[in-house]
From TrEMBL:
Protein name: MFS transporter
Subcellular localization, as worded in the UniProt entry: Cell membrane
Transmembrane segments: 28-46, 58-76, 88-106, 112-136, 157-176, 188-207, 241-258, 278-295, 307-326, 332-356, 368-389, 401-419
Family: Belongs to the major facilitator superfamily. Metabolite:H+ Symporter (MHS) family (TC 2.A.1.6) family.
Gene3D superfamilies: MFS general substrate transporter like domains
InterPro entries: H+-coupled_symporters, MFS, MFS_dom, MFS_trans_sf, Sugar_transporter_CS
Coiled-coil ranges from the UniProt annotation: none
Topology versus the membrane: Multi-pass membrane protein
Organism: Streptomyces asiaticus subsp. ignotus
Upper lineage: Bacteria, Bacillati, Actinomycetota, Actinomycetes, Kitasatosporales
Domain Major facilitator superfamily (MFS) profile: 16-423
Primary localization class, coarse: membrane
A Pfam cross-reference name: MFS_1
Record keywords, A-Z: Cell membrane, Membrane, Symport, Transmembrane, Transmembrane helix, Transport
Length: 446
């Protein structure tokens, strides 16, 4: 990298890490704040009745947002491959700001009946569209902006930012719980975090306008043919696309189980107060966030597969005992230790899953290759995890969900054991550097 390339990636990876992550933080703050505040606004959009039924309705809308993610993955992944990572990152955060504002001003069931739930649904669809493109744009930007031998470390900050967004949401929830009455939170207090999210996204929009495009993408800008970012081009890498879906399956179910669903589980099943459940989640997620760069750096030394295999084995064998113990947790310390144990296992997946996927594809189809298969897997497994959990609970078979999570991890474990190592895969440079086997080692400078 030289001074003669002013439009290339930043001289230090930290500028790229900040630029790629700060918007990701706001995106996932808005995404997760829906889940963490659902216990307060569930009654605002649906008729009064069974609390679990209300949560089931809001979880259903949460899941619908995931089914919009493949559309966002396709449209915004294609956009990122054809127009650049910077342009895609700016567009996604704009959509997220609009969706957060919609939720903040949505009318309640008592005011307009089910129209309020319809507004909530539209906002979730916009969020799904945005996040479907954000994940891939952020993953490709962070990966392409990294230096050789450090991609695992740099890309791990994607989940640092995702977790930080959730922590801010949970932190705000804890603050509101201690400064507002329960009635006030159920009445109007739940709108506050969505207003904060809309404002934060507007700020990030301004910050992302000053991002520089990655060197890897800039070097391929001359290849402006009709195949860039197309489904036809992605199908030439169908094996890698299928691999993304399979390796994501177990990880996304486990991640959403121990993050977005954990607070509800501790409150609705273990019987903890909402404030204590939120504090347990906050503390566990904070430590989980700190683990991501350590695990990402470790993958740069020993490879990606060992971490993925560790996650697969741990999640398959430990989910049932951990979830069972959590259902009977009667102290803050006990719930925290169990939650942290689960998240340590999940770190084997979260810290490196973005870089593994990005390393599978060449530049001209990398964003779409990461976005669409990942979004499909999340729609089928991650987005439905909370809904499936509540469905089992409502049917009086809550332990069935524990086995479901273990089974998903077992399927992904088979993939981890048989997939190739991607740590040494060089990022492609033009069509001449577009091999059929992305894992083949080549020597190019990043």
């Amino acid at each position: 990298m030289t001074d003669s390339a002013p439009r290339s990636q930043p001289r230090t990876p930290w500028r790229a890490v900040f630029g790629g992550s700060i918007g990701n933080l706001v995106e996932w703050y808005d995404w997760f704040v829906y889940a963490s505040f659902a216990t307060y606004f569930a009654g605002a959009f649906f008729p009064k009745g069974n609390d679990t039924a209300q949560l089931l309705n809001t979880a259903g809308i949460f899941a619908v947002g995931f089914f919009m993610r493949p559309v966002g993955g396709w449209l915004l992944g294609r956009f990122a491959d054809r127009r650049g990572r910077k342009a895609a990152l700016t567009l996604t955060v704009t959509l997220m700001s609009a969706s957060a504002l919609l939720i903040a001003i949505a009318p309640t069931y008592d005011q307009v009946g089910y129209f309020g739930a319809f507004v909530l649904l539209v906002a979730r669809l916009l969020q799904g569209l945005s996040v479907g493109g954000e994940y891939a744009a952020s993953a490709t930007y962070l990966t392409e902006a990294s230096r050789p031998g450090g991609r695992g470390f740099v890309s791990s900050f994607q989940y640092v930012s995702m977790t930080a967004g959730q922590l801010i949401g949970l932190g705000l929830q804890i603050l509101l719980q201690h400064t507002m009455s329960d009635d006030a939170l159920h009445s109007y207090g739940w709108r506050i975090p969505f207003v904060v999210g809309a404002v934060g996204a507007a700020v990030v929009f301004w910050l992302r306008r000053n991002l520089l495009e990655t060197e890897v993408y800039t070097e391929e800008e001359d290849h402006q043919d009709q195949e860039r970012g197309t489904i036809a081009e992605l199908l030439r890498h169908r094996k890698e696309a299928a691999l993304v879906i399979a390796l994501t399956m177990g990880g996304t179910v486990a991640y959403y189980t121990y993050t977005t669903y954990l607070t509800k589980y501790l409150s609705n099943t273990a019987g903890m107060s909402k404030s204590d459940a939120s504090l347990v989640s906050f503390c566990a997620l904070f430590l989980f966030m700190l683990l991501q760069p350590l695990a990402g750096s470790l993958s740069d030394r020993i490879g990606r597969r060992p971490l993925l295999i560790t996650f697969g084995i741990g999640s398959m064998l430990c989910t049932v005992p951990i979830m069972t113990a959590l259902s009977h947790a009667d102290s803050f310390a006990g719930a925290l230790l169990l939650s942290l144990a689960a998240l340590v296992i999940v770190t084997g997946y979260t810290s490196i899953n973005a870089v593994v996927k990005a390393e599978l594809f060449p530049t001209h189809v990398r964003a779409l290759g990461v976005a669409l298969p990942y979004a499909l897997a999340n729609a089928l497994f991650g987005g439905t995890a909370e809904y499936v959990a509540l469905w089992f609970k409502k049917g009086g078979m809550e332990s069935g969900f524990y086995w479901y999570v273990s089974a998903c991890a077992a399927v992904s474990l088979v993939v981890y054991l048989t997939m190739r190592e991607t740590r040494d895969a060089a990022l492609s440079r033009g069509r001449a550097d577009d091999p059929a086997a992305p894992g083949k080692r080549r020597t190019t400078a990043v």
